[in-house]
Specification:
The protein is built from 36 helices and 30 strands. It is α+β, with helices and mostly antiparallel strands and 1064 residues long. It has six domains: 171 residues, Multidrug efflux transporter AcrB transmembrane fold (Up-down Bundle); 87 residues, Alpha-Beta Plaits (2-Layer Sandwich), CATH 3.30.70.1430; 90 residues, 2-Layer Sandwich (Alpha-Beta Plaits), CATH 3.30.70; 175 residues, Multidrug efflux transporter AcrB TolC docking domain, DN and DC subdomains (2-Layer Sandwich); 222 residues, Multidrug efflux transporter AcrB transmembrane domain (Multidrug efflux transporter AcrB transmembrane fold), CATH 1.20.1640; 89 residues, Multidrug efflux transporter AcrB pore domain like (Alpha-Beta Plaits, 2-Layer Sandwich), CATH 3.30.70.1320. A hairpin with a 2-residue loop joins strand 8 and strand 9. The longest helix has 47 residues.
């Protein structure tokens, strides 16, 4: 009451205080970082090692296992996932929630360094990195034009890439596609052997002779001149004259004697194309723009787009730059949509208020709580390090109907005192103080339900932390507004003689006539409600049974699977990808030919706007090279301009790709949550040690899940086996001849794939790699591989066939491990059914699947995330309900009466679940967050009823009269607050803009739950209140009988003065 009295007596001081917060909030808004999702620090550490030329099995045995053993003892370790692929090892270390990823990265680096000596000598230095989910690609750009691929690549690397890298906030720009220049030194095995040389001799000579080193400085009079030994190759012909050895007769052996030097291009390992409606199959260069982790997504993307316009003007005629994917566009559209919904919600809220309050002044007093609370919230968001993202903006949009609740309750009570003829200052003070406890209670119920959401653990906690805390902050600020600004403005803008409308002519206006009709209608409803309430109190068992049936009906939605269950709704953001794979050993040209057929068919789909194709790197925009895979990123026209959904289009793609020979195409829509988890794939892990046994089990599991309704595009990682040629080293023979395993591997890699030994640096141009490789006649013939010459430490050369046996075989493209055990994955795309329903059917189908001892079957991926999310959200829901009850007990000093308020919570679920089912929404993380929010909202109505009933009983009314009078009096603010919440949620529930699929379930839950709860609470809570009151009297009589008379008398004498003092 003190702060309200201060606001009434020192209005300008309070006004300046509030305006100061609004001003700082507006400034903070401009300083907030804009991003798609909250800034998340994932407790992940990644270790990557390159082991050139090694097969996956060798990488697993020689690299992965020692590293797994090294990192397995770090504090806070959760799981260790490892992947061994050809020439590369990756270890992903996941830490428990709350771990310090920075400290863990240092610990991992120290432990990896300690086992470095146990790894093969020719592995690269292990790279240790902490996961940074904020440093994400934000723009995909293509460079196209009527130029050869090599010219496009040169333009990309010399002009576009450096310009984009210089932009503030850009961390990296990666280039893909095209042809790269190289100087190729193709050696002839027979000539090398004839001269007694090996590939290593050539390698050493090329590296040794291409130098430019400082020689110091030379003083010459008054000047100092730098001295440099300059031995860089000036032209390709310089390499041919390079001396690589000395012959028997002492003559020099030149490079041109054993090798052919030529200028050309590196072997093409990736083909990139870009197709539009106007032009199909253009050769393109892909550029991937990665932002810095703390950079503003929208600002960086805007800067890049401005730079592209400037860069394009400098390019040759016919060459252009196009943006194929811009994540900032989705962020911008989603935030714009939320801001539009927010503005519409404020308008609808104001409309509801003016219908009930009949006065612009009253409406403005209440509506001012919205911008005051919202803008001030930005100040606290900035202070707490929050960003302006989809979650925090969604929180602000969801609070619109809540922010006016406190002001409505306070103003309605002030309004009632004004109608009694009290002075506006007195009415403001009494109206606020009389409702103060109820206002605090209804605000704190909102705040405490958000706090468990803000402090949940795991991915779901990180995702919703800013959401929950932003809502709590805004709601607390609205309470402060209702205690200061609302009574201050009411005391000066409203009058005891004319509280409902402004002064006007004596002739009754339309507004006056409407007010009269509205008030008479509402008074009739209030009177009718009073009669219904009196009837209900006379038939308490029937009303209680109705409430119980409502709770049972709500439970039946879950028990009988009437609601679909999934992690998060899939969003139609106008883009999907198609992952293409061909059979093992398919070369790049064949993959390209078949992919082009699929491109042409997809391009004919009316909704398709553009296609970005990357062949030789399936699974992402810049994935690892793989000649038998491809990835198509398909851009659709805006969903407002097409009649079909993105999922209907992907079904078309499945149909169109079905008859392309040997091709498997899997269209998929990206998860709306990205780093937060989710997705819509069914993924099952099989864990064990024997790879052959795992292969058999995986094949059986795949056949089972194929039969589960809703599963498409099943995939079995055990089938990813490619043919290979293995050089089985005879270590004892190699030791006798003075050859090491490292030499053998390096010589094979140089001969077949080639090794960049140095760089050619033509003046004024980018440097060009000098690649040492075997002549085509040697490296493309299996029978000639045994002739690869090796340098012996004992002098002379040794042929590869003398120290190793070459054999054809096949092996896995990669080996996956979890917690030091091998893993195979069977997966499928879920379509047409919610993920939870499909997972339940799959789990039931696999429950009878026998597993050998030592083998495990686990659901992973989206299903695992769903289970973890349900556990976290279920715990938050239970904790929220418990905190509401504890708060009510603390405020009302009673264990029993708060139970009447709590009974309003479960009856709200019948409306929430029913409207979810009617609107076709599922039970997902967003709708469950809506349920948690609903618990705080529906408790408000019960609080208003119970609080005023207690007040009237303290004034001397009988219980029945107090309940009926409280119902009639509080009906107006209950209906007003409920109506404002419902109408504020309508824009979110009915929106079809970007990101609406995630926002709609929350709003639908709140709308449905508010309707059912309000209708049932108005009669059910009073009935439950009477039962609890009867029980309170029973307990009172029982305690009175057990309490000794002298003690009772003493207690009465000690209590009387305290009560008297308290009443003063």
């Amino acid at each position: 009451m003190g702060i309200t009295r201060l606001a009434l007596t020192r209005p300008l001081a309070i006004l300046m205080f509030i305006l100061g917060f609004i001003l700082m909030g507006a400034v903070s808004y401009r300083m907030l970082t804009v991003d798609r999702f909250p800034r998340i620090s994932f407790p992940f550490v990644n270790v990557s090692v390159t082991y050139a030329g090694a097969a996956p099995e060798d990488v697993e045995e020689l690299v992965v296992k020692p590293l797994e053993a090294a990192v397995s003892g770090i504090p806070g370790l959760d799981t260790v996932d490892a992947t061994a692929s050809a020439g590369r090892a990756t270890i992903n270390i996941r830490l428990v929630e709350g771990s310090d990823a920075d400290k863990a990265a240092i610990d991992v680096e120290r432990r990896v360094a300690a086992v470095r000596s146990r790894l093969p000598e020719d592995v690269s230095a292990p790279s240790v990195n902490k996961a940074d989910p904020q440093a994400q690609p934000i723009l995909n750009i293509v460079l196209t034009g009527r130029r050869p691929p090599e010219d496009l690549y040169q333009l990309a690397t010399d002009v576009v890439q450096p310009s984009l890298q210089a932009i503030l906030g850009v961390a990296d720009v990666q280039v893909s596609g095209g042809l790269q220049k190289e100087i190729r030194v193709a050696v002839d095995y027979r000539k090398l052997e004839a001269y007694g040389l090996s590939v290593q001799h050539v390698n050493t000579a090329l590296s040794r002779e291409n130098v430019s080193l400082p020689g110091g400085t030379l003083d010459s009079g008054r000047r100092t001149v730098a001295v440099r030994a300059f031995g860089l190759y000036q032209k390709p012909e310089d390499l041919e004259s390079l001396i690589i050895g000395t012959g028997v007769s002492g003559s020099s052996i030149l490079l041109k004697d054993v090798a052919k030097v030529s200028s050309g291009y590196k072997d093409r390992t990736r083909i990139v194309r870009y197709s539009t409606k106007e032009q199909f199959g253009q050769d393109a260069i892909g550029l991937n723009v990665v932002k810095q982790s703390d950079a503003n997504t929208i600002e960086v993307a805007a800067s890049v787009r401005r730079a592209l316009t400037r860069i394009e003007s400098t390019l040759p005629p016919g060459v252009s730059l196009s943006v194929t994917n811009d994540t900032s566009r989705y962020v911008r559209r989603s935030i714009d949509a939320i801001q539009y919904d927010l503005g519409l919600a404020i308008f609808l809220t104001a409309t509801v208020l003016i219908l009930f309050l009949h006065s612009w002044r009253n409406t403005i007093i209440v509506v001012l709580a919205i911008p005051t609370s919202l803008i001030t919230t930005f100040l606290f968001m900035y202070a707490f390090g929050f960003s302006l993202n989809l979650m925090s903006m969604m929180a602000l949009a969801m609070t619109i109907g809540i922010l006016v609740d406190d002001s409505i309750v306070v103003l309605e009570n002030i309004h009632r005192h004004l109608e009694l003829g009290e002075h506006p200052m007195v009415a403001a003070l009494k109206g606020r103080s009389e409702i103060g406890l109820a206002a605090i209670a209804i605000t704190l119920t909102d705040v405490i339900v958000y706090l468990p959401v803000g402090f949940m653990q795991g991915n779901i906690g990180r995702l919703f932390r800013e959401y929950g805390l932003t809502m709590a902050i805004a709601t607390l600020l609205s309470l402060m507004v209702s205690f200061t600004l609302t009574p201050m403005l009411a005391s000066r803008w409203l009058s005891s003689h004319q509280p409902d409308h402004d002064h006007g002519p004596k002739r009754r206006s339309f507004a006056d006539r409407f007010k009269g009709v509205w008030d008479r209608g509402f008074d009739a409803i209030a009177s009718g409600y009073g009669n219904v309430l009196g009837w209900s109190l006379g038939r308490r068992p029937i009303i209680l049974m109705v409430g119980v049936l409502a709770v049972v009906a709500a439970y039946s939605f879950i028990q009988f699977n009437l609601l679909g269950l999934e992690y998060a709704p899939q969003e139609d953001d106008n883009q999907f990808s198609v992952s293409v794979s061909m059979p093992p050993a398919t070369n790049l040209a064949t993959t390209d030919t078949n992919t082009k057929v699929l491109e042409q068919r997809i391009a004919q789909i009316p909704e398709v706007e553009a296609i970005f194709t990357s062949i030789g790197g399936g699974g992402g925009f810049f994935a690892a090279q793989n000649q038998r895979t491809a990835n198509l990123s398909v851009q659709l026209v805006e969903k407002d301009h097409r009649s079909r959904t993105i999922w209907q289009v992907t079904n078309d793609v499945r149909r169109l790709s079905a008859n392309i020979p040997e091709m498997t195409a899997r269209p998929s829509v990206a998860s709306s949550l990205q780093g937060g988890g989710g997705g819509n794939n069914l993924s099952i892990r099989l864990i064990g040690e024997d790879l052959n046994e795992l292969n058999k089990l995986a094949a059986q599991v795949e056949e089972i899940i194929k039969e589960v309704p809703g599963v498409a595009d099943t995939q079995n990682s055990s089938l990813s086996r490619d043919p290979e040629i293995r050089a089985i080293i005879d270590r004892s023979r190699a030791a006798d001849l003075g050859v090491t395993a490292q030499q053998i591997a390096q010589a094979l890699r140089t001969s077949i794939q080639g090794t960049v030994v140095t760089q050619f640096r033509p003046e004024g141009q980018s440097q060009i790699d000098v690649t040492l490789i075997a002549a085509d006649a040697d490296r493309l013939d299996f029978n000639r591989l045994a002739d690869v010459p090796l340098s012996s430490s004992r002098g002379g050369t040794v042929r590869l066939g003398q120290v190793a046996k070459l054999e054809r075989s096949e092996g896995p493209t990669q080996i996956q491990r979890t917690n030091r055990q091998r893993v195979l994955t069977v997966s499928g795309v879920v379509q047409g059914r919610p993920l939870g329903d499909v997972a339940r059917d799959a789990r039931q189908a696999l429950s009878r699947f026998p597993l050998p001892p030592g083998y495990q079957l686990q659901f992973s991926g989206a299903v695992q995330q769903l289970n973890l999310a349900l556990a976290a959200l279920g715990g938050a829901l239970v904790l929220s309900i418990l905190l509401i009850y504890m708060l009510m007990v603390a405020l009302y000093e009673s264990w029993l009466y708060p139970l009447a308020i709590m009974f309003s919570l479960p009856v709200s679920l019948i409306g929430a679940f029913g409207l979810l089912m009617i609107t076709g929404n599922t039970l997902n993380i967003f709708s469950i967050i809506g349920i948690i929010m609903l618990m705080g909202l529906v408790a408000k109505n019960a609080i208003l009823l119970v609080d005023f009933t207690n007040t009237l009983r303290e004034r001397g009314l009988e219980r029945f009269e107090a309940i009926v009078e409280a119902g009639r009096t509080r009906l107006r603010p209950i209906v007003m607050t409920t109506a404002t919440v419902i109408f504020a949620m309508l824009p979110l529930a009915t929106s079809h803009e970007a990101g609406s699929e995630s926002r709609a379930p929350m709003a639908v839950v709140v709308i449905g739950g508010s309707i059912s709860s309000t209708l049932l609470t108005l009669v059910l809570v009073p009935v439950v209140y009477t039962y609890l009151d009867d029980l309170q009297h029973v307990f009172g009589r029982w305690r009175h009988r057990r309490q000794p008379a002298p003690a009772a008398a003493l207690a009465e004498r000690e209590t009387a003065p305290a009560i008297a003092g308290g009443s003063e």
